[in-house]
Amino acid sequence: MVMMLSVSRYNVLQLTDGVETMGHVRWQLLLCNLSVCILLFLCVFKGIKLSGKIMYVAATVPYIFLTILLVRGLTLEGAWLGLKFYFVPRWEELLRPSVWFDAASQVIFSLGFGTADHIILASHNKFHHNIYRDAMVVPVVDAFTSLFSGCVIFVTLGYMATTFNLDIHKVVADGPGIAFMVFPEALSTLPWPQVWSTLFFLTLLVVGLDTRIVMIQVLTGSLGDINPHLFRSKVAWTSAAICLVTFVLGIPFCCQGGMYVLQLVDWYIASVALLLIVFLESSVLAWIYVVYASLSELYQFPGVTFPLLNL
After folding, report:
1. Domain range spanning residue 122?
2. Which of 140, 225, 247, 289 has its CA 20 to 30 A from that of 4?
3. Which family, according to UniProt (predicted)?
4. Has 210 been labeled as part of a binding site?
């Protein structure tokens, strides 16, 4: 395991000593960045008509891959050790504020709150679409997906702890390390490791594309609202420009010190800033744009009722 971490740190990433030393651009990572941006453009250059169809596949395929990985993982020695570690609660952890902060950040990021994802995607629905039903279904599906993918991860970590005769606490890692160092190390010990590794990284690729497609739709939709004549009539050019900008912005992450930049962005933008944005949005909707005014507008949509609120 230590060897795998060293290979990833010094051979693949060639990490520097800190964020103050960025080093040079790793051309392998830059090529991957370019390939993803090109693939992303091919998914969105025709607008929602094409990307909407791709999303059906991108949202379904990961479940198939995860199911295959879970079935395989459950047959491994130590899998139940990982599931026990995953599901048996440690109540004392609830006393730590960082646990609640991490949980809130994960839920908000996973559901796409505070980033206008739902607003832009919902704008393509019919006017009388039942958004109240969607608001109930989406969190349930998201929670199930999180639990399901967690099972895949922890059965593998349990197997890894048993194989290397380690305490499972020492195997579990957070951040990108679990996906790009710990998990591949576990898969490399299985029969036909190339098959399982390919399946795992294909899952990551599809999930990542799924997220990036939505982000591009948010940007193109927002620009289209600002200037419909300029941006909506030239969706392909707008998408190409956005993909080019994302490629350029991704170059610092391809440097030897890019992992440190990723961790900073992940913490301050995807966690702290997102929590603050959601808090401010909720406060504005609840106290400035009065909640009853919001509900009265929703009553314009046939079939939308709020039985729990008795309104």
Report:
1. 26-252
2. 247
3. Belongs to the sodium:neurotransmitter symporter (SNF) (TC 2.A.22) family.
4. yes
The residue count of the chain comes to 311
102 known ligand binder? no
Inside any domain, residue 19: no
Query: How many degrees, rounded to 5, is the angle at CA 214 between CA 99 and CA 232?
Result: 145
Nearest Cα to 162, choosing from 85, 224, 99, 259? 85
Place of tokens 């599901």: 87
In degrees and rounded to multiples of 5, residue 255 shows phi and psi of -80, 170
Residue 285 lies in a domain: no
The rounded distance, in Å, linking the Cα atoms of 127 and 282 is 24
pLDDT, one tens digit per residue, over 233-287 is: 788 888 899 999 999 999 888 888 888 888 888 777 777 888 888 888 888 777 7
Domain-located, residue 263: no
- As for how many domains the chain has, the answer is 1
Query: Is residue 152 situated within a structural domain?
Result: yes
